[in-house]
Amino acid sequence: MGAGRVPVDRLPEQQLGRRLVAIPLALIVVITLVDIHSPPDVHLGPLLVIAPALTASLAGPRLTALVGALAVAAQVLIAVFHGGLTTPNHLSQIAALTVLSALVVFVCHVRERRSRELKRARSVAETAQLVLLRPPRRRIGPLRVAWLYLAAEDETRIGGDLFALARSDRGTRLIIGDVRGKGLAAIGEASMVLGAFREGAHRYDTLPDLAAGLEVSVCRGLEDVADTEHDVGEHFITALLLDVPDHGTQVEMVNLGHPPPLLLHDGQVTVLHARRPVPPLGMCELPAPSHRADPFTFEDGDMLLLYTDGVIEARSPKGAFYPLAERAASAPRSGPEALIRHLHHDLLDHVGHDPGDDAALLALERYGAHHLHRPHTPARPLEGRRRPGSDAEPVPRGPS
Questions:
Q1: Which of 168, 307, 312, 397 is most buried, taking the most CB atoms under 10 A from its CB?
Q2: Cα separation, 365 vs 219, whole angstroms
Q3: Within a 10 A sphere around the Cβ of 384, how many other Cβ atoms?
Q4: Is residue 125 within 8 Å of residue 157, measured between CB atoms?
Q5: Interior CA angle at 224 toward 218 and 225, to 5°?
Q6: pTM for this structure?
Q7: Distance between CA atoms of residues 160 and 242, nearest Å
Q8: Percent residues over pLDDT 70 in the chain
Q9: Which residue from 35, 293, 91, 258 is spatially nearest to 161, judged by alpha carbons?
Q10: How far is CA 181 from CA 228, 233, 234, 281, 282, in A?
Q11: Segment holding 215, helix H or strand E
Q12: What is the DSSP code string of 59-107?
């Protein structure tokens, strides 16, 4: 399963709008016939302006202009049957209807132009998301993968949350992280971290070396990409690194100030707190941390749930944080796609709207090394910093 927002196909909506244009056309006919057969002191012609105004909400400027012209023609026809075109009353009605119709067409044109600009912006944002995040495949080695990305700035479709997976000869390495800040201002830092990870995942032999390499890359390039003009505060990136072997059940984890992952095993959920937590990336003034990997067991049928703080800090209208561990424990165990879909809907129900911060979820299920040679299939879209403690929270199975 894949990324946050499903692009909206507007073609069916446009076709429906064109069909509904029959309503303003019918109004023109009805108003004209009723006015013609009404007494001379009854004037229904001014109601004809409803037709182009209604069309503007259903169709584009060309069809609106056509309906407006038909409304003016109907007003002229009414004038012919009620005293002629030379009466001041009819002339004023025709002039007023013409001006109002032209104004409606102009407003419709402006709206359509902005709609096209927004559509182009969405297309650029979707392309940027694909280039930056490179959506992972649904099956990578012995893993099934599903993910969700919700950007705080809805139309950008991308923000400061990040994740990536990289294959190696021995297994799969992955990162999930969260740039301080949100939306467009955080994209530069997210891009820097992802680039360093994709390069370092193939260069460094061990996960601690990879974490140290990321720290060096971030400290070297942070000033060049951080938006210090609009955000003068500290700039750092929380991150969680995992090394999942193709063969064997021992997974290694390095946590750099990121919310701890959840392990789902036999219907129970364990919070995998790091035994050796280190500061986030980008805390360059501090002494270089000593990175050590924390191992834990990840067997066939187990699922890992990685997330950013935009998920667990999402609040309900009453101010309650989203209880991710509890909701994951009660979610259906029919694979990572079903888990992500369930949590997505549950999160939106909890908040009542889209979260106000960038939010990302990444679910992994180990399904056995005997599936390693199956062809990979691309992910399909779904309908987008707390420091861990020292021990795992039992429910019941923690790092080993």
A1: 307
A2: 34
A3: 29
A4: yes
A5: 75
A6: 0.65
A7: 20
A8: 78
A9: 258
A10: 11, 10, 10, 14, 14
A11: helix 207-225
A12: S-HHHHHHHHHHHHHHHHHHHHHTT-TTSHHHHHHHHHHHHHHHHHHHH
